[in-house]
Amino acid sequence: MISLSFVYFFLPVFILAYYFTPPKLKWVTAVAGSVIYLFSVEPAALIPLTVSYLSAYICGIIISNSKKGSLPAKIGLASAVMLNSAVYLLFHRTAYDGADLITSIGGRSLFRDLTIVGAAVYPLNAVSYCIDIYRGKYKCEDSFGIVAEYISFLPTLPAGPLLRFDKLRDRLKAPEADIELGAKGVRLFCLGLFRKILLSNTVYELWRNIMDVPPDSLPMITAWIGMAAFGLFVYFEISSFSYMAEGLAGLMGFDIPSNFNKPYAACSFRELVKRFNCSLFRWSHDYIYKSIAAPGMAKVFKLFAFVVTVVFGALWYGFSIRCYLFAAAIVLVMLAEKLIEPALKKLPRAVRRVLFIIVLLMILPLMAIPVPSDASAYIMAMLGANTIAVDMLSEYLIQSYLLFIVACMVISGGFLSYFHKKKPGIAEYVSTIIQPVWVIAIMLICTAFIVSGDSSVFGYMF
Amino acid sequence: MKKFSDAITVAAFLMILLMFALSTVFFQNNASFAEVYSDCGSVSETVQEFVRLNFPMSSNWRNLYASLLVNSGRVQFDNIYLAGDRLVKLDDEDRSERIAANVEQINDFAEGLDQSLYIMLCPTAAGIYRADLPAYVSQNDQKERINNVYMMLDKKIVSIDAFYPLYSARDEYVYYRTEDLWTPFGAYYAYCESVRQLGLKAQKMDNYDQEYAISSFTGSLYSKAMYEGIAPDRINIFRSKYQSPVTSVELFDGDESRTAESVYFRSALKTSAKTDVFLLGDRYERVDVKTDLEGSPSLLIIKGSYANTLVPFYTPHFSRITVVDPARLKKNKRSLSDVVDLSEYDQILIMFDIDSFSKNSSFDVL
After folding, report:
1. What is the per-residue pLDDT for B321?
2. How far, in Å, are A205, A248, A275, B267 from residue A409 at the CA level?
3. Which residue of chain B has the CA closest to A402?
4. Does residue A451 form part of some domain?
5. Which of A200, A427, A433, B12 is the most core-located residue (most Cβ within 10 A)?
6. Cα(A218)–Cα(A211) distance, integer angstroms
């Protein structure tokens, strides 16, 4: 989505084609858009996509037409889950991590050179569609086109959010352009682009500068700055794509839910997982946790379900050893948090928030650094093991990136929402008038960065 | 009111996208789709590259980008730094192995020579304006690097210190602000020092009239950084107040050759490589400058780009100056002995800037 050819060619052509397509045929434009987009990145991407389309549609019909809990329904569900799990496990590989499941367990990747966009999204959409039908939440959809449009909903392909069929069904069947939603879409798309190009890329560049320093000679302050930069990169990277997805969906007439709720304003890890990439949390909770831990089950099953859910959530960001380690750290921290919950609750919220941020930054090196020994050396550097607090590099980085770091912290900490809440009527009136101006200004600034920036140094999570 | 604003927002957004798309396809002619396709191979890559090459107002976008970065506190554009009022290219890669190999090849070359061999490694702007660079990158001490090379060279090779004269004159216009080269003023200070070492007396600055060949020139560093906050450069030509001794200039590259009457090539001022006004830059493997100073010594210069600005200053001292570019010789698969007869020269000078010397891999042609 971050290229001149996508923003200035594919996007306007697709949106205009979608607007001018008769409502009954809009699914054709939508599916064609997704297929062309995926094909342009990697032609082979159409193979897993086709598997997801067909498995969801056929299994959905089998499940829907069978008695609840009957053998055909179970076979239909198992087939859909297995086929889409295979697609997910074989083809999902994040750009940042670079490993798929097979390489992470020491094998040779079947598809090393392929970049399959959307493999983290459409198999999960297909699974949720079939499970919901099995659970009797809704009947299967007769139109293959509508199912295909949902499975590969173009705005969400790069990095989610994960959507539910029942929330989109009415709009998919009766698409309608909405100018208010369209304007919101433009705003969100531009903000997403802004977040990706100016904020995410800049904090990634800062992290890259620090990552180049060997951990055993890293000053303490630089190590903390580096981890703050990495944490902000992960947030802005995924949230920017979520914003763009919301924006593009708005332009198509869909109002999809926000995927982030000020995650770094959280006071605990339990709160974080609910606020960060909310749709992934809801998906994992509904389809993994609930499938394993039925009500009334023993605590040990619930603990098992919890661990599996957290590991799945962490592995969505990549399959390499670092994601497993980070998942393990999250599980341990959340269990510890549960144990000392009564004591934590007595602390003021601000103190809990600071504690949470410190612990988060302390475990983030496990996710950020590919080699576990380097990650542990980095954590030691954060604790002052290298006996240097600050050096010239730290001073230079603070001087060069201070503005960006402050901007990123203000945005990710949710401080801007204060102004939204306090917004008086006159400000709303003014903001309505200047809306087109700031939207275009952001668009032009982003264009300057896309045209001029060296895209080879952009950091991509997905 | 809100609905109207929303409608304007959506319409303006789509209009801008379409406007740039149409302009890219129909009104820019930087590269045709077929040309790009022949370079890229796949349609997807071709589309990306075609759009990148033909996107309208490219320089304006890059200016805006650089200004935004500088105003947010950034001073670095890849390996180019904003140092005070100038752009400086910094090469801080460790090339000790390459340097050692070069030194060895030069020592071998010196061993077989009957005449004196001189070497002048000059600093780049990054060495002279080190104090204006961010503290963490200014560890790169060019003076130390140059001295280390001199220490490794054979004792019979005479080393010439260009660092001190240039550093002493750092407040003058000795380096371009937007190009990775010294100005004729910088070259003049290096000339004074080098000609003294060559056993001759330098011409005084008063002996020259300074002609402004071009007064608003932006060099390659500007083209990469596109930061408009840097004042453009000017190119001066130092014209002797007396009659120029140059009788002919012959330039050779492979089978190609051309002849001129001056060491200044004004045609280059109309191209993007304006500093090629001096000896046409690095376009030729060998340049022969002949003067009417019969009986004066002859000089062979084995050169990097910095020597082009320096050669005009040597013309009042030598009957013949031959300038050889080892990089071009290597490219043309020739050796030094294929293009010059060393016995015809009284003195030989190797002249490079320290960065080019450190990465040069063509001294095997000597």
Report:
1. 94
2. 16, 26, 16, 54
3. B73
4. yes
5. A200
6. 9
Q: Do B51 and A5 touch (CB under 8 A)?
A: yes
Determine whether the interchain pair B14/A9 forms a contact, defined as Cβ–Cβ distance below 8 Å.
no
Strand order in the sheet with B347-353: B157-161, B116-122, B347-353, B298-303, B320-324, B286-291, B246-253, B256-260
Segment (H or E) for B257: strand B256-260
Residue of chain A whose alpha carbon sits nearest to that of B10 = A183
Residue for token digits 């094909």?
A39
**Chain A residues touching B226 at Cβ < 8 A:** 452
User: Residue B6 phi/psi, 5° resolution?
Assistant: -65, -45
Confidence band for A14, pLDDT divided at 50, 70 and 90: very high
Q: What residues of A are in contact with residue B72 (Cβ under 8 Å)? A: 403-404
What pLDDT shows up at residue A263? 86
A324 vs A311: CA distance, rounded Å:
7
Closest-CA residue of chain A to B68: A445
pLDDT attached to residue A438:
85
Q: Which pTM value belongs to this model?
A: 0.77
Mean pLDDT of chain B: 88
Residue A6 lies inside a defined structural domain of this protein:
no
Residue of chain B whose alpha carbon sits nearest to that of A394? B136
Q: Please answer yes or no on whether A439 and B9 come within 8 Å at the CB atom.
A: yes
Q: Which pLDDT tens digit goes with each residue over B18-42?
A: 888 888 888 877 777 777 777 776 7
User: For residue A7, is it within any domain?
Assistant: no
Q: What is the ipTM of this complex?
A: 0.82
Q: Which residues neighbour A373 within 8 Å (Cβ) at sequence distance 6 or greater? A: none
pLDDT at A401 over 60: yes
Q: How many domains does chain A have?
A: 2
Residues of A in contact with B26 (CB under 8 A): none
Reply yes or no on whether the pLDDT at A457 is more than 50: no
A195/A156 same-domain check? no
Residue A171 pLDDT exceeds 70: yes
pLDDT for B4-16, tens place per residue? 888 888 888 888 8
End-of-domain residue from the set A134, A156, A176: A176
- For chain B, which residues make up each domain, given as ranges? 2-82, 94-365
How close B54 gets to chain A, by Cα (Å)? 11
Task: Decide if B3 touches A, using CB distance below 8 A.
Answer: yes
Pair of tokens at residue A439: 């939207």
Pairwise CB contact (< 8 Å): A251 & B12? no
Query: Which residues 70-99 of chain B have a CB within 8 Å of chain A?
Result: 72-76, 78
Average pLDDT over residues A365-385: 89
Distance from C-alpha of A121 to C-alpha of A119, rounded to nearest angstrom: 5
For B311-330, write each residue's pLDDT tens digit.
999 999 999 999 999 999 99
| B1, B10, B52 member nearest A186 (Cβ) | B10
Residues A194 and A148 in one domain: no
Cβ contacts of B8 on chain A, cutoff 8 Å:
435-436
Domain that holds residue A243: 181-457
Closest CB to B5 among A7, A392, A433: A433
- Shortest CA distance from A13: residue in chain B: B18
